[in-house]
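BUG: 3D viewer hangs when loading the predicted structure for this chain

Environment: internal workstation, default settings.
Expected: structure renders.
Actual: progress bar stalls at 90%.

Input used:
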Amino acid sequence: MFQSSVFDYVNLLDKAADASWLRNEVIGNNISNATTPGYKRQDVAFESLLQEALHRSRYRTTDAKVAGLKSSRLTPRIYTDLANYSYRLDKNNVDPDTEPVFLAENQLKYQGLIDGITNEFENLQAVMK
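Structure tokens produced before the viewer hung:
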């Protein structure tokens, strides 16, 4: 990652895109294991970590909040979703009807993040001209 404040938003968008990519892999794994007895659905925690980090500096501007983020606190983590819940007899809690919806939602989010990164670099390029 870059160490200049010029790239604060790019670095944040990069972390978010990495989390979205990881979520894509986890959802694919959920779909693959939809018929595996005892398998529990997994997801990725990132948005809650970002929200918590941004709330720590409540009365600052958005630019100052983003500049003050510590990237080490924004490491996405995989967790088991609803580990004690299963609506099927084989103890699997993956719903094969909703996982593709989560996958489509995540793909749109990822594309938006990539577009945001591209836009940030276009802005930097315009400033340098």
